Amino acid sequence: MRGTDVDGAGEPGGPLRVALLSYRSKPHCGGQGVYLRHLSRELADLGHAVEVLSGQPYPELDRDGIVLTKIPSLDLYRDEDPFRTPSLGEFRDWVDVLEFAHMKTGGFPEPLTFSLRVLRELRRRRRDFDVVHDNQVLGLGNLGIPRLGLPLVTSIHHPISVDRRIDIQAARGVKQKLGKRRWYGFVAMQSQVSRRIGPVLTVSESSKVDIVKDFKVDPRDIDILPLGVDTRIFHPRGERTPGRIVAMASADAPIKGVDVLLRAVAKLATERDVHVIVVSRPQKDGPTEKLVRELALGERVRFVSGISDDELGELMASAEIAVVPSRYEGFSLPAVEHMASGTPLVASRAGALPEVVGDAGVLVQPGDAEELAATLRRLHDDAAERARASAAGLARVQERFAWPAVAKATVEHYRAAVAQANYLRLAREAE
Hints:
A seven-stranded parallel β-sheet has the order 3-2-1-4-5-6-7. A six-stranded parallel β-sheet has the order 10-9-8-11-12-13, sandwiched between helices. It has 431 residues and is α/β, with parallel strands linked by helices. The protein is globular, with a radius of gyration of 22 Å. It is built from 15 helices and 13 strands. The longest helix is centred in the C-terminal third of the chain and has 28 residues, at 403-430. The chain has helices at residues 31-45, 94-104, 110-124, 161-170, 173-183, 186-194, 205-215, 258-269, 287-294, 309-318, 333-340, 353-357, 369-381, 383-400, 403-430, and strands spanning 17-22, 49-54, 67-70, 131-135, 152-155, 200-202, 222-224, 244-248, 275-279, 301-304, 321-324, 345-348, 362-364. The chain has two domains: 17-228 and 403-430, Rossmann fold, CATH 3.40.50.2000; 244-400, Glycogen Phosphorylase B (Rossmann fold).
């Protein structure tokens, strides 16, 4: 299939051949994987030829015809064996050596090493695509993509500099703080690349402000395009379980605020019959598991992971109350999914959450377990307020967040990037 590629072939407005890049694509609990999954499906439904190029963990794709090209790393951070030492036979080339050395010295190499591997793949196949869409890789290899004659569009959901600040603030002692600084060393590379790669898509005004402030990207290069929700999965499903609170967040990342939620539930559990289910897999004997023991929550808290889409939709629709306790969010797909499930939502007044939730949920101060406990208590006791919040959330989702509309708007950005690349090519030829 030929699209409106930079060689001028194909019909303007016709189908495009799109390469979607993602260095890791967890299907359920990682925002990058969720975004990739839904966007690829909707682009294919619009008639475009979509190929996903991803490192581990690989995405789940919803539609026949979407090609998954695996760009394997050494998979040094796999859930069952994090920070592993590969056997000698696993090393294929110098990029693998760089990846392992980077990990052994405390850094996180995947954005850099994936970008180098995918540039090599695109160099070999540059005539196979009309446009490349980077899903927040921002590695140095990305700078070579436009030099291949391939138009590039980049999504930055939020700058990871925010995660870095929060993690360093939460670290205890000089050694831990230095370790966090080394881990987040890739952020300086992402900042440098983001200023040089052309058009950027982000998901909220809050994220745009942070990208401009932290990465120094020209605001004229950034367009806001909110994310969507899959209402086939996330919708009301009837009866709810009394006293159930549900959250979907990475348990051991301070930025997600699961510690605040657990402290609030511990305060509430002494006087109300409540329990919390967190969709996450905490690190074995890590900070979250230690906090659960310290608070003596016992059966009041449960963590679930590896569940199917339908099981996830049922769980989120079974809750009386949903919580997004994050200290920061660039957008928060879980917040939209909770609202689409008709679940009354409590969210932090942090990052883009006020922008996403509007007046359809209850906003609380991030990090304040006392206020969160008081809000949960009030909602638990007031069925009328829960019904109001449920109806408001459903209405907001129907008005603002739909994946087909996101895909159509994204294609317009692709076409603009293709047109700009053609213009620059013709200008060079005319010189």
